[in-house]
Every structure is written in structure tokens, then in C-alpha cells.
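Q&A log
Question type: sequence-to-structure
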Amino acid sequence: MIYDLPDTTTGAVNKKIIDIREAGGAVALGRVMTLIIVTDDGPAEEAIRAANDASREHPCRVIAVVRGNRRGTSRLDAQIRVGGDAGASEVIVLRLYGPLAEHGDSVVVPFLLPDAPIVAWWPGDCPEVPVEDSIGRMTQRRITDAARAKSPIKALQQRAARHAPGDTDLAWSRITLWRGLLAAALDEAPYESVTKATVSGGSDSPSTDVMAAWLALFLKCPVRRVRTAAGTGLVGVKLERPSGAIELVRPDGKVATLTQPGQPERRIALAPRADRDCLAEELRRLDPDDVFADVVTKGLKQLGATSGTTSGPRSSTATTAAKKAPAARTATTKAVVAKTATATVAKAATAARAEKAPGS
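Response status: OK
Response body:
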């Protein structure tokens, strides 16, 4: 059920929550945390749906701070969602307009659950330093999404440079299944060290960079980052060992193929993870993620030092095309020369016949 409170105040919203609780029996006693979503008006509903789905695993109070038009006078439009419209949580949507849009922290304080952890999620643009943001300062965990930024790779690098304990990014949880499969493959015989690795993925994929940084940090071997077309995401990982290579490749973006020496080829369903699954994973821990911190603060630097380049080799298709190109150009040149020679001979023959013609 949805209750709309246009042009209201935080006091009126709190009173309405109490009325709903008394009338319908909706309580917040089972909520384990407060999740604050900070977003603009456009992607707000998508983010709220993801939070609702994640709340079935982590019952929480969801507070969506939706920043509207900054022009005009300050106004607060609120919406309370309970029951089927709120998953296993209760959702408070606060739409802020005018100068009030810059003071979301003051608006959310009255709705925070007492003695419960606070997590902030920016599904789109986020502050340059989340821990120094007015809302970020009151939270134990801060979740961002570099993939939604205008320049995903640059955004990941900026967040790595300004990382603070408690920060995390959905680019990390999107590769959890990949990391699990690769770790399981390395846990099997012959237990050899990886001599070098290749990670291929979209040129705009921060998850691919994080994967390469993770391998460079923990395998301590040269890692090459191969860039494919934008929008392709993480495409494949190749780990080379003396006995043969381990390859996990997902060419179509849905089904991956795992190949290992001495074992049959395996096909694995490995579609891109939805935001709700990534968010639910991040909400499972409220302490700082030390592994992610090491990957973004040390692994990304080590990746640049060990790989030497971030462009990597061409794909086999591109290499084949490149090899064929000189031959094609040579054939074309020969054809043009032959055609020109033929035309010259034809003109000479015509001129000779004209000279021999009677009356010429």
C-alpha cells in the first residue's frame, strides 16, 4: 500500500508512519538496518525495486532521498510504502526540491532506526569522497556503482584514490561468481603457480579492471588487460600454467565455457548479476571489506606495473583481418594496374586503325 504526502514535513511523515503501524500492525522491530538510497528522480524507481528485492534477505527500512529540481522554493513530497509495495521492508520516499535538495542528511535523520546500522547506496552519480559526504558520514557502509558513471574507468580510479574503510562498489560484487569459479579451478590438481594471466572485457567495464587487479595482487604474476568493444562487460579470463591454461570465457554474455587441462569442457550459466543480487551481497557484511580495499588501492597500481599496457593484444579475428589486409591491398593494386594497361592498349589499337582507314 502506498500513502502520498505532498508538500509535507518530516513531523507529518513520522506521524503518518505511527498511524499506519497502529492501524495495520506494520512494525519495525524486525528491521536489521537502515538503507539510504541517494539518487536523482529518473532512476529512483529502479533503485527502490532493487532495494525491495534485497530486503527479502535483509529486512530493513529503506529511505530513498530523491533529489528533484533545484530551482524554486524548498518542498518535501513524501511517500510511504508498506506491504506488497515494500518487499520485506518499509519504504519512505522523500522527494526534495529547491535548496532542500542539498540537505538530504537533515531530512533523513528523523527516520533512522535507533541502534541500527546505516548503509548508504548511490546507484548513480556519487560524491567524489563518499565518506566526507553529509550522508556518508553517518553510515557504516557506503556503496557506489562506477559502471553507472559517465566515465566508468575514471570513476573507479577516482574512488580507489579516495578509498576509505567501509567503501565498496558494485563492480566488485558483479565478479563474485567469476572469482569463485577461478578459485575452485586453481584448487584442483596439479596445484601449479600461474605464470601469467589475461583478462578481456569491455573498454568501459570497471569490473574487468577489478578482476585484473585482483589477479595481479594475489597471483603475483603479469596480468594483461585486453579491451574489447564498449558494453561487452567481462568477456574472459585466461590463467596460464606449465601444464596448460585455465580459460573461463563468456562470449555471448550469458553462458560461459570453462576449459582445464585433462578435463572435459564445461558450460556454465553466467549471466550478468542484477543490481538486487549485488546489493544483497554487499548488505551481508557491515564491516569494512579489506580484500576489496587492497584490490582497488594496491591491485590497480600493481596491474599497471606488471602489465605494461592496458590495451593488450588483438583478438584472433582482428589479427586474421590485419594479416589479410596487405594481401587484399596488393591484389587490388595489381587489378588496377592491369585494368589501366588494358585501357592503354585498347586506345593505341583504336588510334592505329584510324590512321589506316581510307580517306584519313
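Response note: Confidence is low (pLDDT under 50) at residues 307-360.
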